[in-house]
Design brief:
Length: 170
């Protein structure tokens, strides 16, 4: 069943075109156009994309067509047991200690004065420290200009080339 084609509009119903544009359109030649190559840019999905889409589709179909009657009934076990008496008592004692410290009345305390005792070292320790200080000051204040020049004498000389050659030959 085909639809009847609508009748073309009457000349008076067509939009009015400016005269200069009308003359350009009438003078138009298709041969003045430049040839251009058209390139279709259709990007096909990669094999990885197709495989990922197939696995996703299979997963969704598996979920949609899942049979609930294959499931087994299970009992839920709670793993959060209540605390025993010892734990409750420990928590109560801890809370009582904290509240006792927080609400302690400082006015009930007695004023005390502290005395600091200085223990002085005995005379032997003082003499040892003086000796150490004298030794350190003697090292720090040492005058190296008072030293005398000394000649070093080698007691174990190295062998000469002749002696080495003789030992090689023997």
């Amino acid at each position: 069943m085909s639809c009847p084609m609508p009748a073309p509009p009457a000349l008076k119903d067509l939009p009015k075109v400016a005269g200069d544009l009308k003359s350009e359109l009438e003078a138009f030649k298709a041969t003045n156009l430049k040839n251009a190559d058209t390139q279709e840019k259709i990007v096909l999905p990669s094999a990885e994309d197709v495989a990922a889409e197939k696995t996703e589709k299979a997963l969704i179909e598996g979920i949609e067509h899942f049979e609930k009657n294959k499931l087994k009934h299970t009992e839920t076990q709670e793993k959060n047991p209540l605390p025993d008496k010892e734990v409750v008592l420990q928590e109560k004692n801890h809370q009582n200690l904290l509240s006792g410290v927080e609400h302690f009345d400082k006015a009930t305390m007695k004023h005390t004065t502290t005395t600091e005792k200085f223990v002085l070292p005995d005379s032997e320790v003082i003499q040892l420290e003086k000796g150490q200080r004298q030794l350190i000051s003697g090292i720090e204040n040492f005058d190296s200009s008072k030293l005398k020049h000394a000649e070093t004498c080698e007691k174990n000389p190295l062998p000469t080339k002749e002696i080495i050659d003789q030992e090689k030959c023997a």
